[in-house]
Design brief:
heterotrimer; A mainly alpha (322); B alpha/beta (250); C mainly alpha (272); A: mainly alpha; MetI-like fold; 2 domains; two-stranded antiparallel ribbon; 2 strands; 75% helix; C: MetI-like fold; flat
Chain lengths: 322, 250, 272
């Protein structure tokens, strides 16, 4: 009698536990799927808001060279190209420096330097972009206009990409500020990838008579290449979508030009500059939202491409391990 | 027989912790010398001092002299010391991003060898010496990480042999392997001593007895006894040695 | 001196080995040079924000609203925004993290993880177009992924120990797994807060700024990053200076958050 009651009690407990388990799993699943649905909702809402522009311009939006709010004609080329050029410039400048920093922090620095320096780099990755922008306006732009850009023109002035008057607020300056901003991110993430390489790999190379650099190249960089690639893509993602600092540095001109020393506009800076203007519904606003969708798509493509690359590299790394 | 390596008054530290203490001993050419002792007694540290791998650990340092053919290795560039004194580690560490072929050729390429025929010949010879050729000759393009544990360890041996070192240091090369793979490596060590001077660290006394000409017993960083293997195991000169080989501590 | 230099440098030989040793030295110097190049602008940012910011800090900066060149309403607004965003994003993000870490080993879980990852990478300005009330949209995926990773670090043995006692799974997760991953969760939450506090772009596109103090949830709110932006572009040098003051406050907030997350991680590792 007593025993069966105890058993029944246990059973009830277990059943209640099972019910709780199911409910809990449902709750977390619903929330998680809700979060993903939010992404869908964002996409749909943006798509509806952009429909006026999509219907008016069709595919020619993507090849249109002008952005004219008087004639109400809008095209994406200046901004897509501005985004691509500044991001490419940021990678070109930022990646080699970041890798150097990561290698120094992971392979060369004595422990006394490594710990504080790593902390500073990680801290800098967290500084808000508007602070970079503020610094850009008051410190970098004058240096650009008076020293760096004239110097570059002195050496490379014959190239079409370095024509024009140095003014410190142009595509080159925007690329430089982006590079400065992505250096902490790429350095910190690549440093982690390098630290994750087992010590035994370094020892293998050293014991063959490799110098420290050869061991870094042969054993460490190759082993960590997927992680380094991931770090670079993370930096690229940040550069493509970065708004504040670029808006403050790029000069905000809605045209297309070859020279890096001319002002320009990225998708993000154009939206930041113009979205507040005009009424709640206008063709320009709709076109801006379509550009936002283009930006979203660009970051999506970068991410998916990076994932594919990383998994391919990883698979090849494990080679014939069937 | 001529001493290949002479160690005199060698002490080594990790930070402030002393790992080996004033060790003096010689390794004869074409001998297999085993170093035995309980874990933490400084066996690995001792051989890591012989090719200057010890100093790659932060805060580690060593004092005393180690002479290779009469030359103090601490006066030579570490890079050339390590080229002449190869090393095989406790855990097999092939380069996973390289093919089997590239793993073996890595050391030669570092030294500037670009000639494909020379490389081919060296890879063939090293893999044969490491008794791995027959198992991998059809899959030289596969990743080094695709091999089994025992094969990986022999690949690491082949990689070390490819640069034609004079001495081969082995740091518990069989501790992660099954008995069959272990037997293969032990056979291999037996063949290797015709060409190389071999120093092997092991915690397995039977292994020392099977492969080594001479055996050294280390305890708490000190060299307790160093003698011909048979003498050391059958007539240990020290009480500590006897206690250790009869399994009364360890 | 010369002897020391000679010992530090490779031998002056230019055979194969000499070249390799010199190359090794050259690459080390190059890496060090990268650090210097990277630190010059980054150090300059910290120094300028510190020096110019300190010069701008006086009681009136905090007491006045942006209308009068102060940042009082901006600090208030940032705190309110952070509280609001955290109030929505932390529970949602952590629940999503629990789902991913505890129930996420399915196709649906992989899909959710994929999309949440994508969401962490969407440029914030695009989210801003959508609607400013979802500034937590930026925070949710971030918190979700960091909590998942924090929970995954909790060893399987801990879970098994709890389950072996006959505790239902949801209670094991809530009572054992969550507390074990607690410091990781907290760190993720703090970093999420840092992210939201520094976020400007979405606020900008919605003309979100305000010259006045907090006036209700349906009214525009000023925030520090927005103040910095408008003051930086202002022709008034007094406002430029106030922008530096606001930057210093913002950077100090980040520093505080970063140090507290370090301390939390450190305390955990000491306890273990």
């Amino acid at each position: 009698m007593q025993i069966s009651e105890v058993v029944r009690g246990r059973f009830r407990n277990i059943r209640r536990g099972a019910l709780g388990d199911t409910l809990f799993q449902w709750l977390t699943s619903l929330v998680a799927i809700g979060v993903v649905a939010l992404l869908g909702v964002i996409a749909v809402v943006l798509l509806i808001a952009a429909s006026a522009s999509i219907q008016t311009f069709g595919p020619s939006f993507l090849t249109g060279m002008t952005w004219d709010s008087v004639a109400d004609v809008y095209g994406a080329v200046p901004f897509v190209s501005g985004t691509l050029v500044t991001s490419a410039l940021a990678l070109l400048i930022g990646v080699p420096i970041s890798l150097g920093v990561a290698i120094f922090l992971s392979e060369l620095a004595p422990a006394k330097v490594r710990v504080p320096l790593t902390y500073v780099v990680e801290l800098l990755a967290a500084v808000p972009s508007v602070v970079y922008g503020l610094w850009g306006i008051f410190v970098l732009a004058p240096a650009m206009a008076n020293v760096i850009e004239p110097g570059l023109q002195g050496v490379l002035g014959f190239l079409p990409i370095f024509q024009g008057t140095p003014r410190g607020a142009d595509k080159f300056a925007a690329g430089v500020i982006l590079a400065i901003m992505i250096i902490p991110t790429i350095s910190a993430v690549s440093r982690e990838a390098l630290r994750a390489v087992p010590q035994s790999q370094r020892e293998a190379a050293l014991s063959l008579g490799a110098t420290r650099w050869e061991s870094t190249r042969l054993a460490v960089l190759r082993y960590a290449r997927a992680g380094i690639f991931g770090a670079i893509v993370l930096g690229l993602g940040r550069a493509v979508g970065e708004t504040m600092a670029v808006t403050m540095m790029i000069g905000n001109w809605n045209g297309v030009s070859l020279s890096l020393l001319d002002p320009g506009q990225t998708i993000a800076s154009l939206i930041a500059n113009n979205f507040g203007e005009g009424g709640p519904v206008s063709l320009q606003k709709s076109a801006l939202i379509e550009l936002g969708l283009v930006l979203m798509l660009m970051s999506l493509v970068i991410n998916v491409f990076a994932r594919l690359m990383v998994s391919r590299v990883l698979r090849r790394g494990e080679g014939g391990a069937e | 027989m001529a001493a290949k390596i002479e160690i005199k008054g060698l002490s080594a530290w990790y930070g402030s912790k002393k790992a080996i203490l004033d060790i003096t001993m010689d390794f004869a050419e074409h001998d297999v010398t085993a170093i035995i002792g309980p874990s933490g007694c400084g066996k690995s540290t001792l051989i890591r001092c012989l090719n200057r791998m010890h100093e790659t650990i932060p805060k580690a340092r060593a004092e005393g002299s180690v002479r290779l053919d009469g030359e103090d290795i601490y006066e030579l560039p570490a890079v050339s010391v390590r080229r002449r004194i190869g090393m095989v580690f406790q855990k097999a560490n092939p380069f996973p991003t390289m093919s089997i072929y590239d793993n073996v050729a890595a050391g030669l390429r570092l030294n500037g060898e670009r000639n494909r025929d020379t490389l081919d010949a060296a890879v063939l010879k090293s893999l044969q010496s490491a008794a791995l050729w027959d198992e991998v000759k059809d899959s030289l393009d596969k990743s080094g990480a695709s091999l089994s544990g025992g094969q990986q360890q022999r690949l690491c041996i082949a990689r070390a042999l490819a640069v034609e070192p004079e001495v081969l240091l082995m740091d518990e090369p069989c501790s992660a392997l099954d008995p069959i793979a272990t037997a293969k490596i032990e056979d291999l060590i037996f063949d290797l001593k015709r060409q190389y001077t071999v120093v092997i660290v092991t915690h397995n006394m039977q292994q020392a007895a099977r492969v080594a000409d001479k055996t050294a017993f280390l305890y708490l960083g000190k060299l307790i006894e160093f003698n011909a293997t048979r003498d050391l195991f059958e007539r240990p000169g020290q009480e500590l040695t006897e206690k250790y080989i009869t399994g009364r501590f360890g | 001196m010369i002897g020391g230099l000679r010992r530090a440098l490779p031998p002056f030989r230019f055979d194969r080995q000499g070249r390799r040793l010199w190359k090794d030295l050259a690459m080390s110097v190059a890496a060090l040079l990268c650090v210097v190049i990277a630190l010059v602008p980054l150090g300059s940012i910290l120094v300028e924000a510190g020096a110019r910011g300190l010069a701008a800090i006086r009681p009136s900066l905090f007491l006045l609203d942006t209308r009068d060149g102060g940042i009082g309403n901006a600090i208030q607004g940032t705190l309110i925004l952070v509280a609001l965003a955290s109030g929505i994003a932390l529970p949602v993000g952590i629940l999503t993290g629990i789902y991913l870490s505890e129930f996420g080993k399915s196709r649906v879980g992989d899909a959710v993880r994929f999309f949440v990852d994508i969401m962490t990478q969407i440029p914030s300005i695009v989210v801003g177009i959508f609607a400013y009330s979802v500034i937590s949209t930026i925070m949710i995926p971030f918190v979700a992924r960091t909590s998942e990773e924090a929970l995954r670090l909790v060893p399987v043995s801990t879970r098994e120990a709890a389950l072996a006692l006959g505790i239902p799974r949801h209670r094991a997760i809530l009572r054992v797994v969550l507390p074990s991953g607690g410091s990781g969760l907290l760190t993720g939450a703090l970093l999420g807060v840092a992210r939201v506090a520094g976020e400007t772009a979405p606020l900008l596109v919605t003309a979100f700024g305000s010259l006045y103090g907090f006036a209700g949830l349906n009214q525009p709110v000023e925030s520090l990053p927005h103040t910095i932006y408008t003051f930086a572009l202002s022709p008034s040098s007094a406002e430029n200076q106030a922008a530096w003051g606001a930057s210093l406050i913002l950077v100090l907030m980040m520093l505080l958050i970063s140090i507290s997350s370090r301390v939390i991680v450190h305390l955990r590792s000491v306890r273990e």
